[in-house]
Amino acid sequence: MSGHDRPQSLRERKKVRTRLAIRREAFRLFAKQGYANTTVEQIAEAADVSPRTFYRYFGVKERLLISDDKISPIVEAFIAAPKELPIVPAYRHAVGTVFDGLTQEERDDFVAGEQMMYAIPEARGLVYTEYVRLIDLIADALTDRPDGPTDEMERRVVAGAIVGVLIAASHNNPFPEDVLLRSLEILGRRLT
Amino acid sequence: MGTFPQGVVAFMADGQKPAHIRFGEKSLMMETCLVSAPDRSSSLRERKKTQTRLAIRREAFRLFETQGYANTTIDQIAEAAEVSPRTFYRYFGVKEALLLSDDQRSPIVEAFAGAPRELTVAAAYRHAVEEVLGALSAVERVDAIAGQRILYQVPEALNLVYTEYVALIDSIADVLRDRLEEDVDDLERRVIAGAVVGVVIAAAHNQPLPQESVSRALTILDTRMS
């Protein structure tokens, strides 16, 4: 999800497009011949870029599976959410803002990425690692929220509850926006 | 989740399908919960089985640590544990199954279902964690700690960790059908289950035996959640 930072320059827009093209071709190849059997060279060739370009954009093949910036724009929007919103509604607001800002192309990429994630077992460990990272980021961001708990353990608990709800709503759900927002609304009512 | 997610089955598919489908349905204990079930077995035969299981895991972890998970074969593990490869397969089915140590339906989920009715969700789950982890024998404790350490080192294990947490959300949501009033709908049950599991993840990640931090975290959740 890279909708939050709307690319400004032509150069930026081109970068986003190259990224999306590489992921699109990679997903096509994964679906056709399997993740493990697909090499970086094949992906680069299909996307009309050099392997070097591939590595510049993604580093390793596994990185393809995590849609770029899926996390940080939401955390940024969470910190910037209206101060009067309590924690969970502020997070819900952030999710809504970032989803709304996606272009159709980014939305398609996101859906394809989510589908891949659940089809490729190697991706699950990454998903887990990303969720753990998100707990850290939210716990950190809570120090910037007016009603963020002062105790570190409390911040981790609140962050954990939010992320657990994200997992529950997102798993095997290619485009979980609606369920996600409804789930966060419920959590907002139950968690103070 | 009654069936194991397709991807993981594919990942583990080396002709062992039935074993890990069974393994998936058992909704293995996670993290805090990823420890052997307390030995409630009465018979000598049952105790022997538990000992064999623990011995295989112990030797496997030792080999994983010295030569890496991917480089360790089932034959090597069986030899080190002084059992036949056939016995190994009977106990674990696939190598990946070593990383998760449950051998019955998650005792924590069962203890959660059986926790006193008057307890809130978070308090009941905490009660279950304490009951099950508190009942571990010294040997099981050592096994659990070794298992946890391996879990965070082996990339293949993290795939399972994620899968099992998702299964845990499903199991808890299922139990909540009985623990909560009837007007609480499916989505709301999933939200509550998700919050509990998220808090467990936050407290358990990278902790060798996270009983204490999970208990504390669930106490905090309990004061904040209605």
From TrEMBL, chain A:
Keywords: DNA-binding, Transcription, Transcription regulation. Residues 39-58 bind DNA. Residues 16-76 form the HTH tetR-type domain. One of its GO terms (molecular function) is transcription cis-regulatory region binding. Signal peptide: none annotated. Pfam families: TetR_C_14, TetR_N. The keyword Transcription regulation applies. PANTHER family: HTH-TYPE TRANSCRIPTIONAL REGULATOR RUTR (PTHR30055), MYCOFACTOCIN BIOSYNTHESIS TRANSCRIPTIONAL REGULATOR MFTR-RELATED (PTHR30055:SF238). This is Transcriptional regulator, TetR family. It comes from Mycolicibacterium vanbaalenii (strain DSM 7251 / JCM 13017 / BCRC 16820 / KCTC 9966 / NRRL B-24157 / PYR-1) (Mycobacterium vanbaalenii). The lineage of its organism: Bacteria, Bacillati, Actinomycetota, Actinomycetes, Mycobacteriales.
